[in-house]
Specification:
169 residues, Nucleotidyltransferase, domain 5, alpha/beta, five-stranded mixed beta sheet, two-stranded antiparallel ribbon
Length: 169
C-alpha cells in the first residue's frame, strides 16, 4: 500500500515539560488519543514537586509512540536557581525515558510551535481555547485553568506533525 505525500503513520507524543506540563498522545491525523498531566510527586527538596521518572516511563511505554515532540525549555530571565534546576531535571528525566524507550524526540521552541498552530497570544488561556476548538468533543480535558499543560502538549504534537509535513492535520 502506497502512502500518499504528506501522510504520516504512527503514534506521536506531544510533551509540555515541567511539573505543570502534560503528555498528549495523538495519531498521525492529529486525533487525540489521550492527554495526561505530567506525573509528579512532592518528593523533592522542601517538598517541591518533581517529575516522577517511573510514572512518566509507564505513560510513554504504554503509548507505543513512534516519535515525540517536546517543548524546548531553558532558563528564563529572572527565574530563580531552584526553578531553573527543576526544569533542567525534568528535561533530563524526559530525555532518559524517551531514550530508554527508543523514541526519537524533536524539540520545538515555544515560539516555533505556537506559530505553527496559529497562536498569536502567548497566554495559557489561548492555548486552552485552541485545544478546545480543535477537540470540541474532548473539551472537558481543557476546561480548567490547570489544564493548560494538556492543551499545550496537544498543540506541541500538532505543530510537530505539521513540521514533519503532515497535510491531514
Amino acid at each position: 500500500m502506497a502512502i500518499p505525500d504528506g501522510a504520516l503513520m504512527g503514534i506521536y507524543l506531544g510533551i509540555d515539560i515541567g511539573v505543570t506540563g502534560a503528555v498528549a498522545v495523538l495519531d498521525e491525523s492529529a486525533n487525540l488519543i489521550s492527554a495526561i498531566p505530567m506525573p509528579v510527586l512532592a518528593d523533592g527538596t522542601k517538598g517541591r514537586r518533581t517529575v516522577n521518572a517511573p510514572l512518566l516511563a509507564s505513560i510513554v511505554l504504554a503509548s507505543h509512540a513512534d516519535h515525540a515532540f517536546v517543548e524546548f525549555v531553558s532558563a528564563r530571565p529572572g527565574e530563580g536557581a531552584a526553578s531553573s534546576f527543576s526544569f533542567g531535571r525534568a528535561r533530563g528525566v524526559l530525555e532518559g525515558v524517551l531514550a530508554a524507550a527508543g523514541i526519537p524526540a524533536t524539540f520545538l521552541t515555544p515560539a516555533c510551535w505556537k506559530r505553527q498552530v496559529g497562536l498569536t497570544l502567548a497566554s495559557k488561556d489561548a492555548s486552552r481555547s485552541e485545544a478546545i476548538r480543535r477537540y470540541p468533543n474532548q473539551a472537558d480535558l481543557f476546561k480548567r485553568k490547570i489544564d493548560d499543560g494538556r492543551a499545550e502538549a496537544c498543540l506541541i504534537a500538532i505543530a510537530g506533525l505539521l513540521r514533519k509535513g503532515a497535510t491531514n492535520v
